[in-house]
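[job 4471] stage=fold_predict status=RUNNING
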Amino acid sequence: MALSAASRCGATHAGPTADETVSVHFSAAQPAGALPEGWQHIPFNQRKTPTQWTLVQDEGHTVLEAYARSSVSMVMRTTSLDPKAQTIVKWRWKIDSHPAGADNSVSGKEDSAARLVFVFDGNKSSLPWNDRVVMRMAKTLSGQDMPYATLMYVISGVADVNTVIENPHTRRVQMIVASTARQSLGHWVEMRRDLSADFRKAFGEAPGRLIAYGVMSDTDNTASRARAWYGDIEINPASEVAAGSPR
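[job 4471] inference complete, writing structure tokens
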């Protein structure tokens, strides 16, 4: 789950200034057209069916649609961003269904109709021995380096908003429930989160540099179907923290 996305997206980009908003505007793209510059479709592996990703028009705006049918994949881009400068993440999403029986805390049920994925750099040598063993095993199996830490915002059908869920396979992937399936079903939900504060809550430390981010929709573990839509995504300067608390 996004463990090697950063290394598979290509070279990182220059970091933004402290007052610059980092954004992806799916709304500026053409329906059925190419992904915005710098964004790539990242399959999970050769054994997994990839989710279908399409730019479509919805309510007069171009948005990114994901159709997951017993499938998993991501749409990601690399970056180089100091989350102490850019910390407020804003986006909107909606779903038409949620994977039947999904539960992100259970290995065989770890699916979500929609996720935002943030991949962070850090000092891997400072991690406990068991975490480093998992990272070495992941590299052996995938051929890719596992990032220091991955934080995901997910839609859940069983957990409450703000619940922190540890990935069943590794503590280096933590999930925070940003909205419930019921809240997101059939209509757009506007989201706003403090990325740095959420990272501290999930990992118990300050975040390192953000090296990749994107979206993910998966139903491979539950062998079910789900469709999700993602609107524009913004990562805003820390000065916006004063504008209100995260949802």
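[job 4471] summary: Confidence is low (pLDDT under 50) at residues 1-7, 9-14, 242-247.
[job 4471] exit 0
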